Amino acid sequence: MTEPPLAHFRRHRFPAEIIAHAVWLYYRFPLSLRDVEDVLAERGINVSFQTVSEWAAKFGVKFADQLRSRSRGHFSDKWHLDEMVVTIKGKKYWLWRAVDANGYVLDALLQSRRNKAAALRLMRKLLTNQGTAPRVMVTDKLRSYSAAKSELMPGVEHRSHKGLNNRAENSHLAVRRRERRMMRFKSERQCQCFVSTHGEIANLFLLHRKYLTVADHRQLRAHAISIWREIALSIDV
Predict the structure, then answer these.
(1) Are the beta carbons of 122 and 134 closer than 8 angstroms?
(2) Which among 36, 35, 12, 23 is positioned nearest to 232, based on CA atoms?
(3) Tens place of pLDDT per residue across the chain (237 aa)
(4) Nearest Cα residue to 169 out of 36, 71, 80
(5) With contact defined as beta carbons under 8 Å apart, do 95 and 107 qualify?
(6) Which of 31, 41, 86, 213 has its C-alpha lying 20 to 30 A from 161's C-alpha?
(7) Helices (DSSP H) in 131-165: which residue ranges?
(8) Rama region for 132: left / alpha / beta (φ>0; ψ in -120 to 50; rest)
(9) Cα separation, 104 vs 208, whole angstroms
(10) Whole-structure pTM over 0.70, yes or no?
């Protein structure tokens, strides 16, 4: 029996499986572009890190959009919101992030301000993308959250205490590791594109292994990989 021909993205020399695998390596693990280049080279795939960068930028967004549409409406109704400092070219920015009670990233938004207007922008984006308001919102003691929530979601319960917001605090760690590996983000656009894509792919492979048996973990991991392959090979470009 002959093997079926490999799928190709239009105008791309490498098969779709290789491109999707390179994108997966870059966003799934804390690897630099040159690390991905070396991993592929060990498998006999000679591609430059510049090409890997182009693949990650072009296809990563498309894959993330597919994952985002699949997960819409499947998150917990308890949202944790927080922000962290990001320095780009010597200028301070704030990366606002929202995760649900299980640690899945709902959204991330880079902004230059840490005030009510910035909090409103994040909440509007969350309501638009999720299609529903949360039951509970947990934040630190930044007053901008209370002001924005009172305007947009007055009926939502708000718990404001730094000790309750570890879910959101911990969600920053993965981005911090990648920021160090990339030797900081190079531009606002690059940062926003990366965190939006990284969050969706991280959600797919967040399996909470601590609470699973080995058999269940392997089954869920295989399911996540099959979803990734289905999405990656269904993109029409």
Answers:
(1) no
(2) 23
(3) 444 455 667 678 888 899 999 999 999 999 999 999 999 999 999 999 999 999 999 999 999 999 999 998 889 999 999 999 999 999 999 999 999 999 999 999 999 999 999 999 999 999 999 989 999 999 989 999 999 999 999 999 999 887 777 788 888 888 999 999 888 999 999 999 999 999 999 999 998 877 789 999 999 999 999 999 999 887 665
(4) 80
(5) no
(6) 86
(7) 143-152
(8) beta
(9) 11
(10) yes
**Token pair recorded at residue 7:** 């799928």
List, in order of start, the domains of the chain with CATH numbers. 16-71+207-234 (no CATH), 78-195 (3.30.420.10)
